[in-house]
Each structure stands twice: as C-alpha cells, then as structure tokens.
Amino acid sequence: MSEKKAHKELTNKISAESRTTFGKGVARKLRAAGKVPAVVYGHGTEPQHVSLPAHEVALLLRKANAILDLQLDGGANQLALVKDVQKDPLRQIIEHIDLIVLRKGERVEVDVAVHVSGEPASGTSVDLDAKSITIEALATNIPQNVVVDVEGLEAGTQIFAKDVALPEGSVLVTDPEVLVVAISIPVEQDLGETPEVEETEEAPAEEAAAE
Q1: What's the CATH number where 126 sits?
Q2: pLDDT per position as a tens digit, 18-44
Q3: Rounded to an integer, what distance in angstroms lies between the CA atom of residue 107 and that of residue 140?
C-alpha cells in the first residue's frame, strides 16, 4: 500500500457518540435512528460503548481491515481497527461492530484476501486453495489484498504461502507450507454414452384394425 493510500486510511474520520444504555431494545432503537452500536477495546483500556452513523460506516466497511478515526465525545480521537462485524443474516443490516484500539507504529495480525492475476498456460486452470492468508503489518499500512501472478504457469505448478509476495514491512503469519494456488489440467467428466433406445416393430395397420 502506498504512503498516499495509508494516509487516506487515517482520514476515515467518523463521529462516535458514547452510550450508557444497552440491550437488544436499545440496539433496535439505535438502528432505527440510523446508527450502529459498537464497542472499542484493547491495550488494557476500559471498553468504550459508542454508536456510529450507519451509512458512513457501511461505506467504510467496503474495504477489508478498515481503520476508523473515531471522533469521540469531548473532542478526543482514537484510531481503531474493525475486528468483527455482526450482520442480520437475511437483511444484511449491520447490527454491531467490534473495534480494536490502535497505536501509531503498532503492528497487528490481519487476514488479507488472495487475488489471482494473469492467465496460466493454455489448457490449464487455476485452483485457489487459500482465499486468504494471515500477515503481520503496521496498523496504518494494512494491504487490502495480496496478488499471486499465474501468467504462463504450467500444469503442476504450486504456489505456497511462503512464495506469496508481501508488501514491504509485512511478515507472513500463516504456515509457510500452506498451499495457496495450484495450476492443474481440468478433468473432463465422463458422462457415459447415451443408451440407445430399441425400436419395437409396429404391427401393420391392418392387423391392429382386425384386433
């Protein structure tokens, strides 16, 4: 991730209002008012229960491992990494968010998606065995994904976690021997031959009429 992009992460300012009432009923009222209940914790601090503007949060959460610059009551601000998002399974409405307190210069472990680029050799296909890997990175420089280039690779090629190029300053946490991508030859499924339908000899029309 470039310095410019990392700086953009730090400008994700969002208002966070403190809340002292809890429970499902309170959460429903917050969501009806266009807000999302959240909790901020970590670094030995007391958990802070806040409410966030639902629409703005939904936009920021389109990016994996989003970092929020929370504008707290009293003018204080706090960097926080989105740790967990709970959604309604049917309506996909955000119901609650867990946020972890961040410190500048801190390193964190995160899961990043694996993206594949390029086309392998003709007649082969790409098998993505690991959709994500875990890395350790600076909290303010977390990549959105890692890219595996398969351009021109032949069948039988295997790319393990240790082979994946990581952004500068990032360290692999996933087992280095985990298979991430494999190039193979598609196996044609044998559907078998279509059985022939035996034709039965029809009786002459005259015989049928006589019967």
Answers
A1: 2.170.120.20
A2: 988 877 888 888 888 899 999 999 988
A3: 8
